[in-house]
Amino acid sequence: MKKQIDKYAKRYGKALKETGFSDTKAMTKSYKDRLRTMYDSAAFKAHDIYPTMNVELVYAVIAMCLELKEKGLSDKKIMDFTDTAFKTRKKVVAILEKTIDVLPNAYEIVEKWNIDDHNKRVKDRSITYDYFEVGADRIEYSIGRCMYVRMFEYYGIKSLCKIFCNTDISAYNNLTRNVKFTRYSDLSDGKCCHDLIERRQ
Question: Is 104 helix (H, G, I), strand (E, B) or coil?
């Protein structure tokens, strides 16, 4: 785990500097110590059983949230901070999404991705769907249980799981030519995650 801890601590320290914190060395050490303890915990072992989830990444983000919460930052500022910490990763993903967006079969690609992801999530039980309906040029689903949310909830910061919930919104913001995405609610602050994906006419 040392390699992972060092990688995420480097992102954290760089983001601290970029967002104007002064005592970045001490704060980065505190983050590394926390993340090391979290990776060594029984909770991590219990959570790290879902093949579709990068639980090391989820815990790295949770550790950032907990550190910044203790510094008195609001949820909004913490979410902005994680955007800064992972901006390079986000840019790479955005390039891929924008490349797909210009393809004439973009909707078919998105449809297949959603169906495949649904099947994998059902298999490893990381997400429980109330329903998942595929129709002509539309997919609609409702999620009643999500282990991303459960992990954040375990550490007392459920609302900050919106960091991961918002990745869908970011993705579909780059897929606007052929795909229309509507999010009615998510589990970070609602009773379910309810999404509608449609072919844009």
Answer: coil
